[in-house]
Amino acid sequence: MKTVLVVEDNMDNMELITVILERNGFRAITAKTGQQGIEIAMESQLDFIILDIQLPDMDGMSVIRKIRALKVNGDIPVIAMTSYAMSGDRQNVISAGFNGYIEKPIEPETVISQIREIIGE
Amino acid sequence: KDYAIFMITPDGIIESWNEGVRAIKGYNEEEVIGKHISIFYPEEDIISGKIERELQEAEEVGEYEDEGWRVRKDGSRFWANVVITAIKDNKGKLKGYTKVTRDYTKNYYDRQKLVEYQKSLEQANTKLKELDQLKSMFLASMSHELRTPLNSIIGFTGIILQGLDGEINHIQEDHLGRANRSAKHLLSLINDVIDLSKIEAGMVEFFPEDIVLSDVINETVSWVQAQSDAKGLVIHTSVPPDIIINTDRKRLYQCILNYLSNAVKFTETGTITVSTTNHEVNGEVEINVSDTGIGISKEDQQKLFNPFVRIDSHLRTSVLGTGLGLYLTKKLTTELLNGTVSVQSERGKGSTFTLRLPKENKKI
Question: Where would a tag sit more exposed on chain A, N or C end, judged by fewer CB atoms within 10 A?
Answer without folding.
Answer: N
